[in-house]
Design a protein that fits this description.
By secondary structure, this protein is mainly β. The chain has a single domain, classed as Rieske Iron-sulfur Protein (3-layer Sandwich), CATH 2.102.10.10. The strands form two sheets. It has a five-stranded antiparallel sheet with strand order 1-2-3-8-9, with no helix packed on it. A hairpin with a 6-residue loop joins strand 1 and strand 2. It holds the Pfam family Rieske. Its cofactor is [2Fe-2S] cluster.
């Protein structure tokens, strides 16, 4: 995605293609500053529901059972999720945000 579409301190949801499966993967992005972007799987560790960015608070939220995750590191803020979100490598290359999902995804 173009980096100018995600402002500093912004968060959004995107879809990337898994390198092995060719399937679409949901990814949550957070941009803490102009040169950094953090990427996480959008799959909740509780029961596999999709985690989103549309929340009344500044965190990632699973609407299925109200798990909340910290957008700064993917850790669980409120359960029942047993563990944090899986983090993906991501970078800003030129004018683009690039996400590197696991090779087996």
């Amino acid at each position: 995605m173009p980096s100018d579409q995600l402002a500093e301190l912004g968060k959004t949801e995107v879809t990337v293609r898994g390198p092995a499966s060719g399937k679409d993967l949901g990814v949550l992005l957070y941009r803490p500053d102009a040169s950094t972007v953090l990427a996480y799987s959008n799959i909740c560790s509780h029961q596999g529901c999709a985690v989103g960015t549309e929340t009344p608070e500044a965190n990632f939220y699973c609407a299925c059972h109200a798990s909340r995750y910290d957008y700064k590191d993917g850790s669980v803020l409120a359960g029942p999720a047993p563990k944090g979100l899986t983090r993906y490598a991501a970078s800003i290359k030129g004018q683009d945000i690039v996400v590197y999902p696991p090779l087996d995804a």
